[in-house]
Amino acid sequence: MLPVRLPVGVVTRLLGQLEAAPGARVRIDLPSQTVTLPDGSQHEFDTDPFSKHCLLNGIDELAFTLAQVDEIEAFERRYGRENR
Q1: What totals of helices (H) and strands (E) does the chain contain, helices first?
Q2: CA angle 4, 15, 55 (to 5 degrees)
Q3: What CA dihedral angle connects 14, 46, 3 and 22, to 10 degrees?
Q4: Residues 61 and 31 in one domain
Q5: pLDDT number for residue 84
Q6: pLDDT for residue 41
Q7: 43 and 65: one domain?
Q8: Domain range enclosing 55
Q9: Phi, psi angle pair for 71, to nearest 5°
Q10: CA 57 from centre of chain
């Protein structure tokens, strides 16, 4: 789940639009970090780059770490040699 923070005024407009048109759609575009309200207005939001990467690639923190196993092992070997 991605929490999206928008200014209070935008959230108020969004709630009003959804109340006026139940079932209206809100579009969240993670790559461009924009939210499109039912009236078509677009609003940018910030997100953590790591969370964005994981969501866009369909991975969680553990899968990300496991994908780095070769680099982790190389670091451990280097660290072991340097700290003897």
Answers
A1: 4, 3
A2: 20
A3: 20
A4: no
A5: 77
A6: 97
A7: no
A8: 49-84
A9: -65, -40
A10: 11
Task: Tell me the per-residue pLDDT of 11-39, one tens digit each, with 9 for 90 and over.
Answer: 999 999 999 999 999 999 999 999 999 99
Angle, CA of 62, 67 and 71, to the nearest 5° = 115
Q: Token digits for 65?
A: 């770490």
Is the CB of residue 34 less than 8 Å from the CB of residue 12? no
**Per-residue tokens: 52:** 């964005």
How many Å apart are CA 73 and CA 33, to the nearest integer? 35
35, β-bridge pairs: 28, 43
**Residue 16 and residue 20: Cα distance in Å, rounded?**
6
Which residue has tokens 């579009």? 27
Tokens of 3: 């929490």
